[in-house]
Design goal:
The chain has helices spanning 2-16, 19-39, 44-53, 57-64, 75-90, 102-116, 196-202, 239-250, 272-277, 308-314, 329-341, and strands at 94-95, 98-99, 122-133, 136-143, 154-158, 170-174, 184-189, 209-216, 228-234, 256-263, 283-289, 302-303, 322-328, 349-354. The chain folds into 3 domains: 2-116, no CATH class; 122-216, Translation factors (Elongation Factor Tu (Ef-tu), domain 3, Beta Barrel); 228-354, Rossmann fold, CATH 3.40.50.80. The protein is 36% helix and 24% strand. Strand 1 and strand 2 form a beta hairpin. It binds flavin-adenine dinucleotide. Flavin-adenine dinucleotide is lined by residues 154, 167, 171-174, 186-189, 191, 193-195, 197-198, 236, 239, 352-356.
Length: 357
């Protein structure tokens, strides 16, 4: 059973990008199990073998611990969460009716998560829908209560609908509006083979509600206004940058920003007016289209995928910048590799993955 559980579990960890949580849990659980075992007279060698073969570390750490509903919102809090659950998972104690068990460890972890997490549910009522491009729709909502967020953050959105498919009724969407705006915007792409969630979202009517919770995300602007940035967005991955630029414009701030915005076709470009206005906040935008055959003669932007030459041409001081990558998984991974091959340190590259595209 262990090989199957390990493979499935590690795939889940990879998909949810919770490697840091799993490793922290394993490290702390291992330390606790070894200390407890040695205290009871077991040899560390036997304990290690037992740990890898018979303890449900993999099942617990990959499948139960990573449940999105119960993990805290930020990476640092998730590391603490993994450490707490690991410590209680590996401990051996009994206090009256309470005794150590994996379930108890999870209860303690969930309590921590509940205390630090943003669990407030907000009902968003649809105010309008805007067709931004042939397959992209913006949904504009009125929240039922005030809430604060940072430009670039996302929420978990629950849309009750009939007969949800196996992908369920919850999705993450970045808040495309700025905290300075009264109405809240999200935007999404729709394909021919949409999930039941997307089908229900598409036909949402003015006055209908959707629930937002779990505000999350560290893909936000640096506090230091002197940090020079390069944003790279693919398709609907543009949403966090719309929020950031709108917010800087509305608060009269200036930053050093170059945005590369990659799309297949010119018609796919959304929020151009915000990025045009963004010049006033220090933004330079470089548009590039990847469907080379369909590029019109009038197109004045770039053509093709971003490569080393394009970056060096548009960003002469590319070595001194912090990079923000947002879009489909594969795109983000490719550009991260490109940047690292160009000598950019991993710590200077922030990523926001949009799985499912
Ligand atoms: C932090 C974060 C922020 C995000 N922000 C946004 C945002 O602002 N806007 C946005 O549109 N999306 C955003 N996403 C992605 C979003 O949560 C959905 O995953 C995405 O929109 C796909 O939706 P869907 O699963 O309903 O698939 P659909 O969009 O209905 O389907 C798209 C296509 O992909 C296929 N597909 C999708 N998922 C799977 C899967 N798991 N397995 C197999 N095939 C699949 C479908 O069959 C279809 O062909 C974000 C994700 C994260 C993690």
């Amino acid at each position: 059973m262990l090989p199957v559980v390990s493979i499935v579990g590690l795939l889940i960890v990879r998909k949810l990008r919770r490697g840091h949580l799993f490793i922290t849990f394993v490290v702390f659980a291992t330390i606790m199990i070894l200390l407890t075992g040695i205290n009871h007279g077991f040899a560390p060698k036997d304990l290690s073998a037992q740990l890898l073969t018979s303890w449900p570390v993999f099942y617990f750490g990959t499948i139960m611990l990573t449940e999105p509903m119960t993990t805290p919102p930020t990476k640092i809090l998730r590391l603490v969460y993994g450490a707490i659950v690991g410590l209680f998972f590996g401990a051996s104690f009994r206090v009256g009716p309470i005794f150590s068990s994996p379930e108890f460890a999870l209860v303690v972890g969930n309590l921590f998560s509940f205390l630090v997490g943003f669990k407030r549910r907000i009902v968003f009522t649809l105010e309008s829908k805007v067709q931004l491009s042939p397959d992209t729709i913006e949904f504009v909502f009125i929240p039922n209560k005030e809430f604060s967020f940072l430009p670039g953050q996302y929420m978990e959105w629950t849309l009750q609908h009939k007969r949800p498919d196996s992908r369920g009724n919850r999705r993450y969407f970045t808040i495309a509006s700025s905290p300075t705006e009264e109405l809240v915007r999200i935007c999404s792409k729709f394909s021919d083979k949409s999930s039941s969630f997307k089908k229900a979202l598409k036909v949402l009517k003015v006055g209908d509600g959707i629930v937002g919770s779990q505000l999350d995300g560290e893909f936000v602007l640096p506090e230091d206004p002197d940090v020079k940035m390069v944003f790279i967005a693919g398709g609907v991955g543009i949403t966090p940058f719309r929020s950031m630029i709108r917010s800087l414009l509305d608060t009269g701030q200036q930053r050093w920003m170059i945005l590369f915005y990659v799309n297949k076709l010119e018609d796919d470009i959304v929020y151009k007016e915000v990025f045009d206005e963004g010049k006033a906040a220090g933004l330079k935008t470089v548009y590039t289209l990847t469907d080379i055959v369909k590029v019109s003669e009038k197109w004045r932007g770039k053509v093709g995928y971003i490569d080393e030459n394009m970056i060096k041409e548009e960003v002469p001081d590319y070595e001194d910048r912090v990079y923000y990558l947002s879009g489909p998984n594969m795109m983000v991974d490719l550009y991260k590799k490109l940047l690292m091959d160009m000598g950019i340190k991993q710590s200077e590259i922030k990523t926001d993955y949009f799985p499912g595209y």
